[in-house]
Amino acid sequence: MQAAYINPFLTSSCTVIESLIQVKPTLGELKIKQIEIEESYVWLKIGIVGGMTGEVVFGFPEPVALKIASAMMGGYSLTEFDEISRSAISELANMISGNASTLLYNEGIAVDITPPSFMEGAQAGSGMKALSIPLSLQSYGAFDIYVMTK
To answer: Looking at 51-140, which runs of residues are DSSP E strands?
Structure first.
């Protein structure tokens, strides 16, 4: 997988998260791994089309997703993954992917992204291999962004 495809997602993830919730993410080890669907996770998928095609899959443990969504809502405590939580996490994924698509464009790779969609079980690409970008957010917890290109 080319660095030109991955670096925009690394940069975008850190920039967007830091600006939204004022926490600087810590990047874990990048590696190719199989996506394993886990219970009590929130899964989102965004398609990429154009000069690069593929998908970006976000996998959040539900407690991490709730903490991030709460921070995005100005600290309002969210206790269940409802429509407000879904909207906030969907917007986070959209902002990271949109920012990455702008960075890709600046590198000469014109892409469009599809709207984020929540996935259940097998829809999340269980068993598929992707480049995993693990991010840790201090007291929030950790989550992964998986980038799959064709």
So the answer is: 54-61, 111-113, 117-119, 129-137
Question: CA-CA distance, 38 to 108, in Å (whole number)?
Answer: 36
Given a contact cutoff of 8 angstroms between Cβ atoms, the answer to whether 57 and 125 are in contact is yes
Q: With both helix axes pointing from N to C terminus, report the angle between 83-106 and 3-21 in degrees, rounded to the nearest 10.
A: 130
Q: For the chain, what are the domain ranges?
A: 3-149
Which CATH number describes the domain made up of 3-149?
Answer: 3.40.1550.10
Residue in 123, 31, 44 with CA at minimum distance from that of residue 91: 44
- pTM equals 0.91
Give 84-126 pLDDT, tens digit per residue.
999 999 999 999 999 999 999 999 999 999 999 998 755 555 6
Strand partners, 59: 43, 144
Q: What is the C-alpha separation between 56 and 82, in angstroms, rounded?
A: 23
Triad 115, 90, 71: Cα angle to 5°:
155
Beta carbons of 54 and 150 less than 8 angstroms apart: yes
Q: Are 129 and 20 in contact (CB under 8 A)?
A: no
Q: Please, are residues 104 and 8 in contact by the beta-carbon 8 Å criterion?
A: yes
